[in-house]
Design goal:
heterodimer; A: 302 residues; two-stranded antiparallel ribbon; 14 helices; 2 strands; B: 211 residues; alpha+beta; five-stranded antiparallel sheet
Amino acid sequence: MTTPSSNSATSVFAEWNLLKNKWIYRFLRSRWYPGIIQWPTLAVFVVIMFDLMLGPTVTHDNLGSALTWVFWWPIIPIIFLFMGRFWCAICPFATVNDLVQNFVGNRRPVPRFLKKYGVWIIDGLFIFITWADHVWGIVDNPVGSGILLLMLTTGVVASGAFFERRMFCRHLCFLGGLAGNYAQAGMVALHGTPEVCAKCTTASCYKGTETAPGCPIFEFPKTMQSSANCVLCGDCIKNCPNGSIQLTVRPPTKELWLVHKPRMEAAFLAAVIMGIVFVQNVTTHGSPILTGSYPDCISITW
Amino acid sequence: MAQAKILRWLLCGLAISLLILILPGTALAHGGGGGTVIIGGYQVSLAFTEPAKAGDNLFHVQILDGMGMPTRGAQVEISAMSAENTQPHQASMEGMEGMESGAHNMGGMSGMHGMSHAPTAVPVRVPTKETEAEYVGVIAFSVAGHWMVNTHVSINGQMLMADFPVDVVGGSSFFAIAVLALFIGLNGLIIWAASFTKRKSVLPEPTVESI
């Protein structure tokens, strides 16, 4: 078994390479990770779905609404900040995608237009869902919330059934788009060790091995410059024969100061999030700053 | 083999999930509300014979005087307003069976939707059995949710008003079941189509350079 590289030239916080901790390293390489978290999450998701659709119609009494909008939704940005896109590794939609893919997956390549315009579609979806929440009150309506989740599930099933890897998560998931933006400000970063990767000719992290599949989000740690699309699934850690992968801790927002290739669509989404949160707080809830009052409900934006 | 194992685990998980689902559903499947308010020296109580639900609900209003004796001959009106959405009256009331031609049934009065918050009550018929001294009626809640039932009591020219919060539960709607059925059908179709067109990976084996 290889051990994580001790090379620390690439990060100020490289001495905090979490993979140097043997327990973390063993856990992430274990075949139990991320399944041990992923499958219970899927079970909870199924409960939530049923409760949203068939449970109490009063929002305050609906367990699904409470778990989704009161517990999970507010906590998710905090997870992004501290653990990057870790949620995406255990997301029930991703599990459904993998499950369908294992059974009936056609594994077709991602359509070119999705590679090119996927983020813009995510931007549009985010705006549409926010608008739909304003108009139809998705958060305040358990069935509405359920329908939103069912629609996303259908998209994920179609993606898993016909396309390779986690096409939906990478190119269409609106939460994934948000997560990508937040993850760049996150405190953990996974990347390869350049000196080790330079000598590698196997690309096991991308292609996969018998141990684990290749990167589900189409990332190549050797050239990965950003944490935006790393979900910390641990597959590359399992696959790398050279122990090149590092999981380092860094100051929050550090990556944002070192963006090599700014992307218009990502910047647009960040601006949209900021704008929607601001407008929603001022118009829907009054002005908490002026009134000193707390919002009386949770909206779909942060 | 591995797929069969995964499938078994999946079925176990679904079974457990359904079991868990039933428990909170059962615990939450109560409605009700009402209670007792002391106002103007009278004790006004509102009770539903069954947990309040979307649709028609039989309720009882009891009025006791300062001595704890039932008060008869009062004019009792009742109205309801959704407390959750602060929408005006969406509930309606109808007289008890036995009411003569004046029996009111305002269920489904869509015109009420935009009315002001003014009470839109219908008098409840005073029971013929004076010993019971209860005021009984039927109120229809249009949707599930938190409601505020406003009771307007007139006793010897004295007007008393008492508000009672009521949680109205709703059963699984046909709409939700239809959506679920559509979801299952659509996803079944997708999976069937995928299994039909399944073929070996069309991806060329990537090389380091191509990545």
